[in-house]
Amino acid sequence: MSAEPLVFDPSDPTYIADPYPTYRRLRNEAPVYWWDQGHMWLLSRYADIEATFKDPRFSVDVREWRLYDAERRGVLPPEMIEFYENGLFQVGHKGHARLRKLVAPAFTPRGAARREQLVQQVVDELLADVDPQERFDLLPGLAEHVPIRVISRTLGVPAELEEPFREWSEVLVKTTFPILPPDEYAAVAARFPSGYRLVEQMVEERRAAPGDDLLSELIAVQEQGDRLSSIELVSLVGGLITAGAETTVHLQAFAVLELLRHPDVLARILDDFERLPGAIEEVLRHDNFSAIGVPRYALEPVELRGQAIAQGDMVMLLVGSSMHDEEIWPDAERFDIDRDPVVNLSFGRGAHFCLGAHLARLEARVVLRTLLERFPRMSLAGEPTFDPHPFIRRIKSLPLWLQPRADS
User: In what order do the strands lie in the sheet with 314-317?
Assistant: First the structure.
């Protein structure tokens, strides 16, 4: 037990750079911890987090939070209310199961694999004019653009709308997890309607003139006569943009960072690119980009490790901490690409397992393989810098030397 008081501050730069000492203390000293500043419980042990992912006593619907009305009512545009009431995270168990059944065939591993050529094309475009002798920043140079271009082209979004869609994805991420102060939340929410209307217009255009794209596929899908409504389609597209943009950017960034920090592992991958999938799983486990976690809301009173969680309480699942739990991973601090990936909780568990998980893994694999094939002696040109973000350890800059410098 540490003599220092246990303090959880996800805005602390030290925490953002390395949250694992804090996670360790939470697991050992307070695995079910009330964070007063954030008005939520923090769960840090693997067993508790995995169980809560699958526990029907907890909901993903933010409207079940006991503080939701007090802090958010009256600041949301009507388009935003309609969007969230019809999305995968708010429709309740039966509605969620119906939507997943309709859309799941488009998000299987085979469905993701069909898009490998598109991902490769996007990566090739972004690297076409790169000068390997110049210092290269991975984020603005590549990683920030790959996911949004891939999901935009998969959906059939016109090239001129890719930037508005990227901006809307930032709004969606920040409003999905209600941890911003109310005034900041209201300011972000005010930017919501413009992106909503863009997607709404695109859905109607594609209904009238279907194309060879995922949105047309989702419009056409039906199960025993059941189809997705227009608002369900808008909400689903928004969810895909959220899941397919911000988080996937940082999976790529952390993957490059981890491999360059572990040259022995990098050498093994350069010897056999079949090891890349295992490396990506270990990146997700060893240094996860999550700064806080995944929220759930108690639908009834729940007792957990002697702590009384009240109905309506927010429970934050610290996924990054769970994947350093020594009860699951001996020597958890060691970066080991041969670990069993089955127990990885990065994309959740149960009914709300992330739809875009297979595409995210594919994008990371194509980016890493392409960079390492072209620039096998790539190296860090400096340490990463981080931007403030509500729930992601958001790398702002990751400077690289793609080719060794003449003076090195």
Answer: 32-35, 40-43, 314-317, 294-298, 58-59
> In degrees rounded to 5, what are phi and psi of residue 310?
-85, 155
pLDDT at 90: 63
Per the CB < 8 A criterion, the answer to whether 175 and 188 are in contact is yes
Q: Which residues pair with 387 in a beta bridge?
A: 394
Q: Which residues contact 401 (CB under 8 A, 6 or more apart)?
A: 135, 136, 378, 379, 380, 381, 408
Q: Look at residue 58 and give its three-state secondary structure.
A: strand
What is the rounded distance in angstroms from the CA atom of residue 263 to the CA atom of residue 248? Answer: 23
pLDDT score for 45: 97
Positive or negative torsion for Cα 271, 274, 279, 282: negative
Residue 250: left if φ>0, alpha if ψ -120 to 50, beta else—which one?
Answer: alpha
Contact 247, 392 (CB under 8 A): yes
Count helices and strands in the chain by DSSP H and E runs: 20, 14
Q: At what angle do helices 276-286 and 246-261 cross, to 10 degrees?
A: 100
Give the 3-state secondary structure of residue 137. strand
How far is Cα of residue 195 from the mean position of the Cα atoms in its chain?
20
Neighbours of 41 (CB within 10 A): 22
Tokens of residue 45, six digits: 């042990």
Please give the sequence-ordered ranges of beta strands (E in DSSP) within 260-367, or none if there are none. Answer: 294-298, 302-304, 307-309, 314-317
Tokens of 60: 């993903």
At residue 408, the pLDDT reads 47
Long-range contacts of 200-209 (CB under 8 A, 24+ apart): 200/230, 200/234, 202/155, 202/156, 202/157, 202/237, 203/230, 203/233, 203/234, 203/237, 204/230, 206/156
Q: Which pLDDT score, from 0 to 100, does residue 318 have?
A: 96
pLDDT of the residue at 141: 95
Gap between the Cα atoms of 162 and 290, Å rounded: 25
List Cα–Cα distances, 112 to 118, 124, 211, 361, in angstroms.
10, 18, 19, 9
Nearest to 358 by CA among 127, 160, 106: 106
pTM of the shown model: 0.86
Low-confidence ranges of the chain (pLDDT < 50): 408
Give whole-number Cα distances, 33 to 24, 29, 84, 89, 400, in Å.
13, 9, 29, 25, 39
